[in-house]
Amino acid sequence: MSGNKKSMMGMVCLFLMVFASVNLFSNGYDTKPLYVEVGLNFQQSSKAVVNLQTNTGFQIEKFEHNNFNSLLSLFDHKEVILRKDAYYLGTGGRFVEYTGEIPNENSSLNLQGPYHVQIGTISPDLNQAKEQLSTLKSKGYQGYLSYEAGWMIFQGPHLNQEQAQRSAEEIELLLNERATVIAPSQHRVQVLDKVGELIFVFDSREGLYFKAVEDKGSVNLISVDNQQYRGAVTATRLSGSDMTVINKLLLDEYLYGVVPREMPASWPIEALKAQAVVARSYAAAEIQMSKYKHLGFDLSTTTSSQVYGGYASEHNNSTRAVQETAGVLVMYNGKPANTYYHSNSGGSTEDSENVWSGSVPYIRGVQDEFSLNALNSTWVEALTAQEIKAALAKNNIHIGDVQSIEIRSQSKNERVLELIVYGTQGEKSLEKEQSRRIFGLKSTWFDVKIEGQSQVESQVQRQGQRQSGELHILGSSNGSKQAKDVQKSYVITSQGPREIDLSSNILVYNGQNYRQQEKVNSTNSAGTGTFVFEGKGFGHGLGMSQYGAKRMAELNYNYQQILNHYYTGIKVE
């Protein structure tokens, strides 16, 4: 979750968290969940075909009542292929989904179809189903097990209804068993061996998982398209989609693959422990938030949740940090806190409502000298007017050629709350995280000027362009800065009230002396110039700064002290 987070996701999370805070972990929810489900492939990345491998064979298990229960063993298969119930071209374990016009049976295409023949009725007993399968195979028919609300024997696959019906009639005569054509299913998943022979099909709504047969002398791993993971893997289908691939594993085993992806394993152990605890707390809170529940899992593998790299990402130092903080969470009012974190605060973290929308009591801005003089504590980004115009257009914002940019208001921690972009065909207000997201900036803590100008000169130019004037007023209650237009306003002089004349020269007082600025004509060359953003920090600025945690650990703070510095009113337990 470090670096440039997905701000829209964060906004939704904060809204849900505030809305549901009263009932967050009610109804008997365990605040320290045992398992987590991670979406490896879903929506745009969902799969029509997935390859699974283990070193010990497969155990197919059903997850019920918070436990895995063995259903079927495939000891002789160290590699299987999962594919949705559809049409495919290919042989020998290599398949591509076919979505073209379905040819007749005499076509030269090596095409496999999604029709099956069910023989007999559903049985609750696996051994009975295996006996029926053995009988079918002894008669020369290709058969395989099916699990859909119980055990069944299927034969096939067939290209179409007519082909399947002919096969069903032959089997009924031969075995004196009822044979029924089974149409393609939007929920069915086929399981093939490495040479492409069907060995098993199942309804993906049944909650079946593939695990490596346990070998107590080693870490039990399962590979998904050559990426290794602990725990179990399943494939589900949602409304006829491709397969959503999910990794279900123990929460702390998940953290083994998260902590080294979110924080370098070479960093001090107390910083790694702090990272382990916030990653655990974030996951526990997100599981209850159910952001991805409609897709069948809890968390993604990306910065939309936390970066998870599976077994290949694990490191002994990070694993040690997870193990030495086992079960420890950041708690607020007896519930796991949604512990947002980021790369570098730039010197001050931020209040949640100044970045997204909801006010979260434990996400309050704090002074953070520990993040200074580190990577991205300061930064500079230059964007031409054309680049800014293109970035706006990409977000369906069209205001013509960009003329100027104005920071309208800032938080007491100096992050931008409102940025105004002025163009030849209008203006656009960007609030909070919008400016960072649209322009690809490292944070919302920045100043902006036209290249070659001072900040004051740039501000004066903006005033001249709009033929108005502004004062930045420091709020007495919250310290935020608000820009106020003083056009048509009056000041008290020694000669009495007098209207502010924006056509005259402007004197800027910096607390020590005055500096005179010449009037700037409303037509200027900013539309072809370059805007320079000078900023601080990297990320949204909420919660723990990872570089700050590193520095605190170097100064011999322990992980509890680190967490209490960045999160307000919490308990580490």
UniProtKB/TrEMBL annotation:
Q: Which domain of life is it from?
A: Bacteria
**Does the keyword section mention Secreted?**
no
Pfam families the record matches: SpoIID
Tell me the ranges covered by the Sporulation stage II protein D amidase enhancer LytB N-terminal domain, including all copies.
241-332
Q: Which GO terms describe its biological process?
A: sporulation resulting in formation of a cellular spore
GO CC, one annotated term: outer membrane-bounded periplasmic space
Could you list this entry's UniProt keywords, alphabetically sorted: Signal
Q: Which residues form the signal peptide?
A: 1-28
Q: What is this protein called?
A: SpoIID/LytB domain protein
